[in-house]
Model the fold of this input.
Amino acid sequence: MTSALALMAMVAQSALKQLGCVRAVVVGDGLNALGLVRSLGAAGVPVTSAAMRAGSPPARSRFARFERLASKEGGALVDELLRIVAHDHEPPVVFLTEEASVISISAHRERLAGRVRLRLPPQQRVTALTHKAGFQHLAEALRAPIPPFVELRSRLDLPRLGKLKFPCVLKPAAKDYRYGARFKKAYVVGSPEEVARLYQEIEPVCPNMVVQQWIDGNDNDIFFCLQYAANTVDAPLASFTGRKIRAWPPHVGGTASCVAAPEVHAELSSVTAKFFRETGVVGMAGMEFKRDRRDGRFYMIEPTIGRTDFQHEVAVINGVNLPYLAYCFELGLPLPRVQQTVPRRVWREPLIDRWSAQTQGMAHESGFAGARVVDAWWRASDPLPWVDFMTRRLKARWSVLKR
Done:
């Protein structure tokens, strides 16, 4: 087995040399992009960090060369990518980390045809699945497990809330930066009257909202399945299932810590792959689920299309390097072996995980039993992003002390 793996590695390295070490271009400034840069760079892939700030975490990684972007969305992003790849002999493999970038690249895909390697679903599917109402309608048409919802486009839609059972979750129908600057990611609401009060304030900023029936459970009842699919006929090339431990803010926020969940992998990977096949989803994608504590059933919450998730690196530290697998597949190289690590490894963003634990009255290490914890920032092989992170924290504390 060891000799076979060594032979595969030698074949891959030989193929890479023949292709002139085709690079990967990672678009984004955040922790998500840093995880991608490390996942690819540690596998020997030449990586370019296409970011808006030279001091952003992925741009500071020793695994990446920095290229400045003027924008991460719209036609301007396409112009920037064409500039970056203008002198490449072979089209690089592009990885996206933000929804706005996916929507923009998808809408202008003809301009990038033959210039980059990036596998995306058809345009109409990208449009539908990056909008919560579009996802809901597709899931309902396919009889997929999804909680009922009402879409709000104006106050005239508020009477429709009577068909829902409360509590519910109020959230924007699509990513909206103006909304994010003023309001929480989502609100747990107990009645139609509470929705109406909140919506009165939100509507002038973001009128398109959804109200979805609440699934009873905590943050550790939220699971996710990450996949990379070549087509809509065969099984995904690789799949990884994880579970949140904590979120920030609790109950409605993004991942603060998470871990592999092999115990539910067979069920969730099957449901995810079936939905993506039936909706034409290919490339990098993921599905978030929540398990209802009342009946133990899993319900789809939202998909991720054409990009990696914030916590995508949890798959890599648990032995499933989806970005590198995607890179190898797109270049026709031998696919890397996928074998989950034992014991399981926890991916943790230390600051927001601490906030979440403190807010809920938990010990900071609770939920990690039997697993090795991996800091999202710290790597001995790539320390600068962690140094920057700690410097920012120390400056923030010093400012508080001075005040």
